[in-house]
Structures are given as structure tokens and as C-alpha cells.
Specification:
There is one protein chain. By secondary structure, the chain is of the alpha/beta class. The chain folds into 2 domains: about 160 residues, Lyase, Ornithine Decarboxylase, Chain A, domain 1, CATH 2.40.37.10; about 230 residues, Alpha-Beta Barrel (TIM Barrel). It contains 14 helices and 17 strands. Strands 1, 10, 11, 12, 13, 14, 15, 16 and 17 form a 9-stranded mixed beta sheet that branches. A hairpin with a 2-residue loop joins strand 16 and strand 17. Helix 3 packs parallel to helix 12. It starts with 7 loop residues before the first helix and ends in a 31-residue tail after the last strand. It binds pyridoxal-5'-phosphate. Pyridoxal-5'-phosphate binds next to helix 13. Pyridoxal-5'-phosphate (PLP) binds next to helix 13.
Length: about 425
């Protein structure tokens, strides 16, 4: 991971130093800051890019499950894409109607499958015949019949080496399974893999995906993912929504029949709408290299150093108002634990920093807070939303009590063991 300090224009669009200081003094540090106005603009731009009239956008909340943000998607006319029952649960709390939620996950057990169906989700894309079969077993007990069932596609030539999905050779068996319970297999789901900025990687496979979907006699909808990239490197090519939308709309219109199109962007919709603010708590030098310690950690933002990737880092010197450019030094930004991978930025080019200066890690809206954890036993940051020139808390900062959640502090009654003698210590 390499980060730098060249992004002033893009960044000041989100925040000024004065606002960053105000936010930190109001809500504390570290702090996830979301720009609601920018999020609405991004949603609008993506929506406009796909002109095909029967298109439904579903936000992939695997990237970010904050209810206040989900409500912005909802009020902008998008539904929700769920990878897990937890995504559905959060979506329902945010006010989505179950009919606005598409589920395309993996490996539900029977209880979870029932739960998903009882919540009333009506479009379900399955990853395996076993999951489709389980759904069909559970479904006949319900009266709801306007459910739409689909399969996730696995074709190594276009989906790569993926564990997810069903091969076209298995379609016949899948169709038989659904017909047995009086239902149709009406959808195909294509997912290209996450973070792809090469637009051609999507446009080149449209024809193959459509031809494959046409093998389903009851084909009614196409779900085209997911996976659209975001340009974390300010000087690298971005995913071209206009080109993608035009090509997909043209090809699907050419079919001459009404096929519902589902698009479920995650990262592309929300990555650029958030910044993680933190403060410098320690500075030391190792020869020419500046080692900056900050009050956040990779457990608060695990993506860059743990999973690879790149996020730009911007800094404000607390007391310095001069506009004279500072000399830049090779700098590591280190988290507040001793974990060997606790780097928020490595080999960044940054000015000499001091305790109290502010650092801003850009483009953390997707897979940021959502992938944060309690590893290292640091409570999670607060989240704040900026909208129409105001700010408000949308998730409280955790305190240490969260580390006790679900722990049994008093000794619980001893489990006496099974009557059938299955426990080895009896
Ligand atoms: C089926 C599906 N759709 C959408 C997404 C969101 O992907 P991205 O953030 O790359 O758009 C995922 C992510 O795992 C997914 O599995």
C-alpha cells in the first residue's frame, strides 16, 4: 500500500480543515465522516447512466450497513441487495419493503432460509442447486407465490475461478426442481468480482451472459451484479458508467422483450463518500523516514494493509495556516496497536507532522466500517453524516463495554451432559 498527499482538490470537496476540526472536537477521534450530498449525486449519476426502462438499482449493503445511509439509497429510489440474512435485517430496519430487496447469498441453513422467506424477500438468486432445493422444500408451506427464483452463474471463462454459482450444464436440473413445486426459474445473476475498473470486463461479456440466460425457458430477469470499481488512485482510469449503461441498455433492448434488469452496485456507489479522520499522537524518525502514530488502527479500517489496496491520505497541520508548500518526507502512518500489519499508510509522501495534526484517509465508504472489527480490542469509531451544511451522529462511538458483549461474567450453571452418553467426559 502506498499513499500520498496529492489529492487536495478531491478532498477539500468533502471537507475543509475547519470542518474536520469542528467534527473532531464535537464527536472525538477517530471518526468516519460521510458526505450525504455527494452520495446522492453519485446515486443519481449511476442511475442516469442506465437508460433501459425496466432497471432496478439495489444497493449492495455488504459494503456499508449504516441505517442512515441505507435510508438515503431508499429515498433515492434504490432497493437493497443482500448477501446475508443480516443485510436483509438491516434493510428492513431502514424501511425497505421486502419486495425491494434482492437476496443473492450463499449457504443458508434451513432456519435461515425460512427466515429469509418469512421476511418476504421476493427475488432470490441461489449459489447452488442444494440451496435452490432447500428453498423449494421450504416454500410450498407458504402461500406467497409471486416469488422470483434465479441462479448465480458460474462460467470460468467470464466469472473467473470462483466458488460461487451454478454451471449452465446444471440448469436443466434446476428447472426441474422448481417446476416440481409449481414455480419458475426466471432469473440469472452475473457477478464479475469486486473492484473492477476495466469497463470492458463487463461490456465484453454482456452477450455471453444474455445468451446463457436465454437457456432458461422462463427467463424474466437479469441481475448483472455488483463488482463495479472505484478509482482509489486519483490518476488511474475509473469505471465508465455511461459506456457500461449505454451498452447494457442497448443489448437488452435489442432482445425485443421485457426483461427486468437488476443492478446492485456496492463499492462504486459509496466508496468515495466517506473519509476516516484521525489525529497524530506520536512522531518519531528512523533516519530519513517519518514514523507517525495515529489514534486509529487497521481494525477500524482493515482494507488497505490487511487485504491489500490503496487509500490516499491527506493531512492538515493543526497550527499552520501558511499556504507555502511543505517539504515532503517518506512517512509510515502507524495504528495504535503493536500488530505488525497496523499500518494505515506506508511510504506516503507527507509533510513533517506533529502531535495533534489531523490525518484523513480518503474513500473509505465501502468495506470500511463494515469490515472493522474488535480484533486488537479497540472499540469502533463513531460515524457522522454531513448534509446540507449540517452534521449529525449516525452511529455512536463504542466504549470498552462493547468488549464484554455476550461474555459470561458470572459462572453459568454447569451443563450436565447428554442422557445418551454422547459426551466423552461423562
Ligand atoms: C452478489 C453481490 N453483489 C454485489 C456485491 C457488491 O460488490 P461491489 O462492492 O464490488 O459492487 C457483492 C459483494 O460481495 C456480491 O457478492
Amino acid at each position: 500500500m502506498v499513499s500520498n498527499n496529492f489529492t487536495q482538490n478531491r478532498f477539500t470537496f468533502l471537507l475543509s480543515r475547519e470542518v474536520a476540526q469542528e467534527l473532531l472536537s464535537t464527536y472525538g477521534s477517530p471518526l468516519y465522516v460521510y458526505d450525504g450530498d455527494r452520495l446522492r449525486e453519485t446515486i443519481e449519476r449511476i442511475t442516469k447512466a442506465v437508460s433501459y426502462p425496466h432497471t432496478q438499482f439495489r444497493f449492495a449493503s455488504v459494503t456499508n450497513g449504516n441505517i442512515a445511509l441505507l435510508k438515503i439509497f431508499r429515498s433515492s429510489g434504490w432497493g437493497l441487495h443482500a448477501n446475508t440474512p443480516g443485510d436483509i435485517y438491516l434493510g428492513l430496519q431502514a424501511g425497505f419493503n421486502p419486495s425491494e430487496i434482492v437476496y443473492s447469498g450463499s449457504n443458508l441453513n434451513r432456519t435461515e432460509m425460512l427466515q429469509v422467506l418469512n421476511w418476504g424477500v421476493t427475488i432470490l438468486n441461489f449459489d447452488s442447486l442444494a440451496q435452490l432445493q432447500l428453498c423449494c422444500e421450504v416454500l410450498p408451506k407458504r402461500t406467497e407465490k409471486n416469488i422470483r427464483l434465479g441462479l448465480r452463474l458460474n462460467m470460468p471463462e467470464i466469472t473467473g475461478d470462483s466458488r460461487i454459482g451454478v454451471r449452465p450444464e446444471e440448469f436443466c436440473d434446476a428447472i426441474a426442481l422448481t417446476r416440481e413445486v409449481g414455480l419458475k426459474l426466471s432469473g440469472l445473476h452475473f457477478y464479475r468480482g469486486t473492484g473492477t475498473n476495466a469497463t470492458a470486463a463487463f461490456t465484453q461479456v454482456i452477450d455471453t451472459v444474455i445468451a446463457t440466460a436465454q437457456q432458461l425457458p422462463d427467463w424474466e430477469y437479469l441481475d448483472f451484479g455488483g463488482g463495479f470499481g472505484y478509482p482509489y488512485h486519483h490518476n488511474k482510469a475509473a469505471f465508465d458508467w455511461e459506456m457500461f449503461g449505454a451498452e447494457l441498455s442497448e443489448r437488452i433492448t435489442r432482445l425485443g422483450r421485457k426483461i427486468d434488469l437488476v443492478i446492485e452496485p456496492g463499492r462504486a456507489a459509496i466508496a468515495g463518500c466517506a473519509t476516516l479522520l484521525a489525529q497524530v499522537v506520536s512522531v518519531k524518525w528512523q533516519g530519513e523516514k517519518q514514523i507517525v502514530g495515529v489514534d486509529t488502527t487497521v481494525a477500524n479500517l482493515s482494507v488497505p494493509s490487511v487485504h491489500g489496496g490503496y487509500r490516499e491520505i491527506f493531512t492538515w497541520k493543526q497550527a499552520d495556516k501558511s499556504s507555502i508548500p511543505h517539504s515532503l518526507f517518506t512517512t509510515d502512518i502507524c495504528g495504535n496497536t503493536t500488530y505488525s500489519r497496523d499500518y494505515l499508510g506506508k511510504n506516503c509522501q507527507l509533510p513533517a507532522l506533529e502531535i495533534g495534526d489531523i490525518i484523513a484517509i480518503l474513500d473509505v465508504g465501502a468495506y470500511g466500517y463494515a469490515m472493522s472489527s474488535h480484533f486488537l480490542h479497540r472499540p469502533k469509531p463513531a460515524e457522522v453524516l454531513l448534509e446540507n451544511g449540517t452534521h449529525r451522529l449516525i452511529r455512536q462511538r463504542e466504549d470498552y463495554s462493547v468488549l464484554l458483549t455476550n461474555q459470561m461474567l458470572d459462572s453459568s450453571p454447569l451443563f450436565k451432559g447428554s442422557q445418551r452418553g454422547l459426551l466423552p467426559w461423562r
